[in-house]
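Hey, quick one: can you model this chain's 3D structure?
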Amino acid sequence: MHTLLGLDSADAVLGHPVAGASWEGFMLETLLTVMPQRCQAFFYRTVGGAEMNLVIDHPGGERWAIAEKRSLTPTLSRGFHQARADLNPRRSFVLIPREGRFPPAPGVEAIGLAELATQVAG
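Sure thing. Here's the predicted structure for all 122 residues.
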């Protein structure tokens, strides 16, 4: 996609309106690729705007909820918190475009893609 748009550097991608969708697609492809075979994945969105980019149901019933933010210091929306309440996941993550992890809210882990992929792979 970046090549078709003539975006030949990271700066060009980050300065283009496609950057958010590109990051989200890359995150989804990466996590779905490493997800254990018997897991099921889906997107969650309500008419009221509650949304979770990726929900993973593990065999045995454990559920993980993953939102992606292209911000280094993500702000969690009311829709994110409502989706968590609706889904009742065991673990909740906010994927951020840097390494390391921190808790942006109680019960939520902000985490980089490589570390989250390791967690998802089990």
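One thing worth noting: The chain has a mean pLDDT of 90.
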